[in-house]
Amino acid sequence: MASALPLLKRALAWVAGVAALLLLFASSATERFDNALYDAHMRHWSYPTSDKVMIVAIDPQSLATLGNWPWPRAIHAKLIERLSQAGVRGIGVDIAMAEADISHPGNDRAFAESIGKQAHVVMPVFAEAAELGGVLEEILPTPDIARNAAALGHVDAAKDSDGVTRGVYLKAGLGRPQWPALALALYDMGKPEPLQTLPGLRRPDDQPDSPYQWMRDNYALIRFAGNSGSFDRVSYVDVLQGRVPPELLTGRWILIGATAAGLGDQLATSASGINDPLPGVEYQANVLESLYDNSLITPLSLPAQLLLGALLLALLLVLFGMPGFRRSWPVALVALVATPMLSLWLLRRFSVWWPPGCCLLVTASGLVAHVALSRLEQRHERRMTSRLAINDAWWTRGNV
C-alpha cells in the first residue's frame, strides 16, 4: 500500500490538472498571454514573398490624378482591359459595387462587359447592416456585374476579441458559409478542380444555419509576410495610363484595392501590430500567398488542445522523482521552458497552433500546491515527532 500511494497521488494530481485544463481552455483564460506569445513570434517569422501576387493600389497618387472617390466604373473597365492585355493570371477586385450608377448606367454596362469578356475577375461579397442595429445583409455587386464575374468571394476579415486580425475564414456567408474568401476564389480560378480539402478549424457540426447570421467555417491562421508594403505594389493610375511594363504583370495574380488612408479597411495584424495596419487588399494578398505556398496555420481544436496538455502533464508527473528531478524546481524549469518551446515547434514544424498558456498556468499552480503541501506535511511530521518525543520523555520519567 505504501508503494502504491505515490502512484495514487500522481494519478489524482493528473486528474485534477486535466480538469483544470479543461476549464481554462473552455474559458479562454490565458487568451491574452497566448496571443502575445503568438504575435511576438510571428513578428520575427516574416518571409520574402514570391512574384505570384501583385497589388494594384488605389493610392494618393491615383486619387490626385483621377479625382475624388468613387471613380466612374468605366475607368475600372479600362484598367481590367489593361491587365488582361498584359496576360495576368487572375484579378481580384476589392471594391464595393453594390449600387447601380443610375446617373451613368453605361459605366456599369462597360464594367460588366469588360469582366465578362476577360472571364477571370473575382468580385467581392460584403456583410453589413443597412442601419445601426439592423438586420445583417449580404452585399453583392449589382446583378449585371455579379452575373459577369468569374466568381464571387467574401472579404470578411477575421478580427479577434482584441481587435487584431490573425487569421481568415476560408468560407463564410449569410445563413451558411457558401462563399469562399476572395483570395481562395482567385486561387481556385482556372484550376481543373478547386481545393477539395480546405485547411483550418471547422465549425461544430451541430451549429445550425441561420438566415440572420453571418456563418463562418475553415478558420486558419495566416503567416503574414511582414509589415505593410511586403508585396509588390504598383499605382492604379500608372497601370491605367500604360506606365507599368506588361512583363511586370504577366502571369501574376492581381489584387485591386485601396491603400490610401481613409479608403477601405486598415487591419491590425499579428505581424504588423496596431501602429502599422495592413490595408484590406494586402490582407487578401497574404491569404493568397499563404494558399499558394501552403503556409496557412491550423489552430488545434479544444479536444486536441486538451489531449496534448494532458499528455504533457502526465510526462511531467512521470519525470518528477526520477534521478535529477527529485526536487520540484528542476521539474518547474523543464515545464516553463519545454511548454512554450513545444508550442513553437508545432507551429514551425507542422503549421499547427497550440496555445501553451493554460498548460503553463496549471503546471505552475500544481508545483506551487506541491511545495505548499510538502511544507505542511513536513510541519505535521515535525509536530508529530515532537509530540512523540515528549510522550517518550514522560513515559521514561514515569517509569523511573
TrEMBL record:
It comes from the Bacteria. InterPro entries: CHASE2. The chain crosses the membrane at residues 302-322, 329-347, 353-373. Residues 30-320 form the CHASE2 domain. SMART domains: CHASE2. The keyword Transmembrane helix applies. This is CHASE2 domain-containing protein. It comes from Dyella halodurans. The lineage of its organism: Bacteria, Pseudomonadati, Pseudomonadota, Gammaproteobacteria, Lysobacterales.
